[in-house]
Design goal:
The structure holds two protein chains of two kinds.
Chain A: E1 5-12, H1 16-27, E2 32-35, H2 55-58, E3 60-66, E4 68-73, H3 79-82, H4 112-125, H5 138-149, E5 155-156, H6 188-194, E6 198-200, E7 203-210, E8 216-223, E9 231-244, H7 251-257, H8 259-262, E10 278-285, H9 287-294, E11 315-317, E12 332-336, H10 360-366, E13 372-378, E14 385-387, E15 397-398, E16 404-411, H11 415-432, E17 438-442, E18 450-452, E19 482-484, H12 499-519
Parallel strand pairs in A: 1-2, 1-9, 2-6, 3-16, 4-18, 9-19
Antiparallel strand pairs in A: 3-4, 5-11, 7-8, 8-9, 10-13, 10-17, 11-12, 12-13, 14-16, 15-16
Chain B: H1 2-23, H2 45-48, H3 50-55, H4 65-83, H5 93-96, H6 99-109, H7 117-133, H8 139-144, H9 148-153
The chains are: A alpha/beta, B mainly alpha.
Chain lengths: 545, 189
């Protein structure tokens, strides 16, 4: 005889969109359960190892779609555990974007001024810090020097990395074993736990159904902790409020799979997906020219040869974040590190006589890997991604034991998106090929389509019910009591790294969610506090010693 | 029966190796090596362990290697016929192709609009992954054993405790003017 478990607030996902509501609602007195599909790793469980089965393959998913592949977090802490912690605010013009729909896509209540106080809160909570040129790794320095040589500006980008602990090992995608990266395991999640929230890893939510009293049932399966293709027991939890924060690649899939039980979703669920206009270029530097043209040299005599050294992106050029430029032609260019195993195959050979991304010429390019510099474009795409019918479970048909799957996203870039990419490609070439510094080629889109590490907008906020799935309080239209607070709620591409904006929007949504919970009889109040922060990442309660 | 199984194994192994060697070419392992064409100096995807990675239960490809090898050999036979090449019958058809022909055939199969593209892309991804990150091996062990891919890309070795640290990491000086509209928090305005 099973009695169905119940809670006040059920949170799906433990990244920024899940951890922030979990903390505030638990701190305010609600019973909170967080279901996270991925495993719970922390501290020295983050391996510096590429082997299948290490943390490097356990904590994120690479989902190949039709025309777009998405890399997203898959662990307690979500993207914050996997990402590079680069945390700029979105420029003012972004909030005025109109996109392909031809009218302002953000809700009237949100602009840079109204979001700044919420940005401030997240900046304090993680925290996010500015740092100086003497803390910029070689790769960022090289990009900055090349920008200056081309008459451009470049900035060290604010980040959520504790530089006193950072070793510049560039293993951030495997999780930070030094707890230098200020992931959610160091702030919002331990604070949520301290207030009584429960976090259950390896619980993959499949769909929602409705209770008789206007609440929801959340249906999940237990995921095998080694082979994610294997699902074990199923279970149900009832909740008065459901917060869906499974990530922009999964949230609309869960909601669409729920349609037979919940009724039709708003038309924008699973539409308007944005890859944040992302595009990559690989430059291969001539070390002699780096020395003679830019005057750079490292202790020990090398000019650069430091692709491996650093902590992801540290320097960006914002010259094209110019509000006077036409929409779709504004973008930032950011130096990036991409580890072996996932990105090198997409880099193309300049002037190839044979295939550009494999073969003998590509192997020669790989011999110079330490002289590579990856440049990341974040532009204004046209929200052209559309999700097809949900797969049987999860958000992908898993191919490998971990990490690799095939998902239902289809993305055909419009002429506007391609125009932005072409302008950025030409710009990168102009900056980095001057005076023979480097040879530059964009990553091919012919292998796995375009590639984003910042999926957005697949269940977005807005004022227009036809083109936005959520109202400006993040409540799902037609389904009161369901809120979406992850990257899928962001209306469109941001031209910069989106984590701080996702987090700020989640913070902004909390007072409204608290009110909705109160209206449903949940004894909860909004205190507006912030987590105290820890220097040791949170472990599962049973393992805390 | 046993001989048939072993023949099938050999076809699978040689064909998949020849595919991986076309993605990241390497030098022949022994003078009469047929799967590896010898189109580049140093070890390629095969020496790096592409077959081991693809056969690893975690990759998800182990069960489909044999049908993939069969499909690739069918393409190779068709390609050879189109080109008027006679193939050495003592090895699988794809293995019998010259390196340049293997490359042209894979360009065809990996092209954006090829209906089978996705399955060949998967094989290519894992072939490359074996080379550039030795995903079937512990990275420390792979580096210690002189893994040809990690060696080729010049991947640094870790400290004695197995962890990577780069205490010297910065040019240490301002290298560009800041954007004029940078806010007090360091963000774009």
């Amino acid at each position: 005889m099973n009695s169905t478990e119940s809670t006040d607030v059920l949170v799906i996902g433990s990244g920024f969109g899940g951890a922030i509501p979990a903390y505030h609602l638990a701190a305010g007195g609600a019973r909170v359960v967080v279901l996270e599909r991925g495993p719970w790793l922390s501290g020295d469980e983050f391996d510096q190892d590429f082997e299948l089965g290490s943390s490097y393959t356990r904590i994120f998913d690479f989902v190949v779609g039709d025309g777009m592949s998405v890399l997203g977090g898959n662990c307690v802490g979500g993207g914050s555990v996997v990402y590079f912690a680069t945390m700029p605010r979105a420029p003012r013009f972004v909030f005025e974007r109109r996109g392909g729909i031809g009218r302002r896509m953000w809700p009237a209540s949100i602009n840079r001024d109204t979001l700044d106080p919420w940005y401030d809160r997240v900046t304090e909570a993680l925290p996010v810090t500015r740092y100086g040129w003497d803390q910029v790794p070689y790769a960022g320095g090289l990009f900055a020097a090349a920008c200056a040589h081309a008459g451009r500006t470049a900035n060290p980008v604010p980040s959520a990395v504790d530089l006193d602990r950072c070793t510049n090992c560039n293993w951030m995608m495997a999780g930070c074993r030094y707890d230098a990266k200020r992931s959610l395991l160091l702030n919002y999640l331990p604070a949520a736990l301290a207030h009584g929230a429960e976090i259950r890893p390896l619980h993959e939510v499949q769909h929602l159904s409705r209770t008789d009293d206007g609440g929801y049932r959340v249906h999940y399966r237990i995921v095998d902790d080694e082979d994610y293709r294997v699902l074990h027991d199923e279970g149900v939890i009832e909740a008065k409020i459901v917060i869906v924060a499974a990530g922009a690649g999964a949230t609309p899939v869960i909601l669409r799979r729920s349609e037979p039980d919940l009724g039709p979703m708003p038309p924008a669920v699973g539409r308007y997906f944005s890859g944040n206009g992302e595009r990559l270029n690989t430059a291969v530097f001539d070390e002699d020219r780096v020395r003679s043209v830019l005057g750079l040299s490292r202790p020990g005599g090398q000019a650069y040869a430091a692709n491996q050294i650093g902590r992801g992106p540290t320097v960006a050029s914002w010259d094209r974040l110019d509000p006077d430029l036409p929409e779709f032609e504004r973008y930032s260019l950011e130096q990036l590190y991409f580890p072996p195993g996932l990105g090198t195959i997409l880099a193309q050979v300049p002037d190839a006589t044979g295939p550009t991304w494999f073969g003998a010429e590509k192997k020669e390019l790989m011999r110079r890997w330490q002289s590579w510099l990856t440049i990341f474009t974040m532009s204004e795409d046209d929200n052209e991604g559309v999700f097809g019918p949900p797969p049987a479970t999860g958000n992908a048909e898993r191919i490998s034991q971990q990490m690799l799957g095939r998902g239902p996203l289809r993305y055909v870039p419009t002429a506007d998106t391609r125009r932005g990419w072409a302008a950025a490609d030409a710009d990168v070439r102009d900056i980095l090929e001057r005076d023979g510094l480097a040879r530059v080629m964009p990553w091919t889109n012919d292998v796995v389509g375009a590639y984003t590490v910042h999926p957005l907008a697949s269940c977005r906020i807005g004022d227009d019910p036809e083109t936005s799935a959520l109202d400006d309080r993040h409540e799902l239209r037609r389904h009161p009591g369901v809120f979406v607070t992850d990257g899928s709620a962001v209306p469109g591409a941001l031209t910069v790294n989106p984590a701080l904006t996702i987090a700020a929007l989640a913070e902004r949504a909390i007072p409204g969610i608290v009110r909705a919970a109160q209206e449903r009889g949940v004894p909860v109040t909004y205190h507006g506090g912030l987590p105290e922060g820890s220097t040791v990442s949170a472990r599962p309660p049973a393992l805390r010693g | 029966m046993h001989a048939d199984t072993s023949d099938a194994d050999q076809v699978r192994v040689m064909t998949i190796e020849a595919f991986a060697d076309t993605i990241v070419p390497g030098e022949k392992r022994w003078p009469e090596d047929r799967a590896v064409a010898g189109a580049a100096a140093g070890g390629g995807a095969v020496a790096a362990g592409a077959l081991e990675l693809l056969e690893h239960p975690a990759s998800g490809y182990a069960a489909v290697l044999e049908p993939l090898a069969g499909a690739l050999n069918a393409h190779a036979s068709r390609y050879a016929q189109e080109q008027g090449h006679a193939l050495d019958p003592s090895v699988p058809p794809f293995v019998a192709l010259e390196h340049a022909d293997r490359t042209r055939l894979l360009q065809e199969l990996l092209a954006v609009d090829h209906p089978e593209k996705e399955m060949w892309v998967g094989l290519a991804l894992f072939s490359n992954m074996a080379f550039d990150s030795a995903a079937h091996l512990g990275t420390h062990a792979a580096l210690a054993a002189g893994h040809p891919g990690l060696l080729t890309i010049g991947y640094h070795r870790p400290d004695a405790d197995g962890l990577w640290r780069f205490p010297e990491y910065s040019y240490g000086r301002p290298l560009a003017p800041l954007h004029p509209h940078t806010t007090s928090t360091g963000s774009p305005a």
